[in-house]
Amino acid sequence: MDDGVGFVEKMTARIMGEVSKVIVGKEKEIRLILASLYAGGHVLLVGVPGVSKTSIAKAIAMSLDLEFKRIQFTPDLLPADILGTMIFDQARGEFRFRKGPIFANIILADEINRASPRTQSAFIEAMQEGQVTVEGVSYKLPEPFIVIATMNPVEFEGVYPLPEAQIDRFLMKIDIGYPTEEEEKEILKRIDRIEEFNVEPVAAGGDVREARRIIRGVRAAEPIIDYIVSIVRATRTHTMVRLGASPRASIFLLRTAQAWAAMHGRDYVLPDDVKEVAVNVLSHRIIPKPGVSSEPNVGSRIVEQILASVPTPTPPAR
User: Fold this and answer.
1) Distance, CA of 279 to chain centre
2) Taking a C-beta distance cutoff of 8 angstroms, is the pair 109, 71 a contact?
3) Are 201 and 65 in contact (CB under 8 A)?
4) SS3 137
5) Cα separation of 304 and 300, whole Å?
6) Chain center to CA of 259
7) 227, 219, 215: which is closest to 314 by C-alpha?
8) 20 to 30 A Cα–Cα from 297, which one of 74, 173, 240, 243?
């Protein structure tokens, strides 16, 4: 095992151990969030109320020794409430910038689709460029910086659709479903400990930055690159698709496959690594043709069809 990917694998195990104190099940979903964190991308958690979307984000944030801020999105939220604003400093006789809550390492954007399009658009520069611009002056955000946004897919009153430009900035969309019967029983048995929410930090910002450096060194052989490109290009030619995934999706798919490999102790990408993350990286970037389906998971079904049709390359030898 390579020392670098071993570092990522062990850090992942520590974080999973802390998060499991307060979250029952959801191992795959938590690992996908961590893969996004290591890959340097943002996450959109989609699910009905009460399925632990906010708790998952909070638990992961608390397991990392990073600054965490929660922003509750509402229709009256203004861009300045997120980014910050210029205030007059009477002692100095000049204006100075007062930073908003977005100046943290991990941002929980709770119910992001409840804010107006104007406020949602304030997030786009931050998510893409790692900076915000106020009164013509740009301010760098902390590093690492990740947005974990939550959204209720079944509520249509008092919400606004996210613009496609913003959706594309999310590296992954992860559906958080109901627990299994056994998981729900376990939640009730452990409810007192869960409500204490005793999660300790087991990794620091430097560890996350090191993980990001390591995964960029995870090898993706030529057949894996060809496989990723074939999958993404197939989203553009699928008969049910009006607009497929962009080259940004190819980059994100590669990065998350590298992260998934490192999290499992490998310094090379397998086709299965690509398959494990493909639906979550690609499904929200697909716009189906009118009349195809209005179901929320139509993008996932299309990606699954593509994965079944694109030939899988032979796994590379070590």
Assistant:
1) 13
2) yes
3) yes
4) strand
5) 6
6) 13
7) 227
8) 74
Name the β-bridge partners of 288: 241
User: Considering only CA atoms, which of 62, 45, 207, 199 is closest in space to residue 112?
Assistant: 45
Do residues 31 and 263 lie in contact, with contact meaning Cβ atoms separated by under 8 Å?
yes
In which residue are the tokens 């509402």 written? 74
Token pair listed for 17: 């151990």
At 147, the amino acid letter reads V
- In contact, 68 and 172? CB cutoff 8 Å: no
Q: Show Cβ contacts of residue 84 under 8 Å, excluding neighbours closer than 6 positions.
A: 97, 98, 99, 100, 102, 103, 132, 134, 139
270 vs 290: CA distance, rounded Å: 36
Tens-place pLDDT, residues 183-228: 999 999 989 888 888 889 999 888 999 999 999 999 999 999 999 9
Which ranges of the chain does DSSP label H, i.e. alpha helix?
Answer: 3-19, 27-39, 53-62, 79-83, 117-129, 164-167, 181-189, 191-196, 205-215, 222-237, 247-263, 271-282, 298-309
Query: pLDDT tens digit string along 160-181?
Result: 677 677 788 899 999 888 889 9
Pair of tokens at residue 305: 């069809």
Nearest-angstrom CA–CA distance, 81 and 174 = 27
Task: Kindly tell me the sign of the dihedral angle through the C-alpha atoms of 15, 17, 18, 23.
Answer: positive
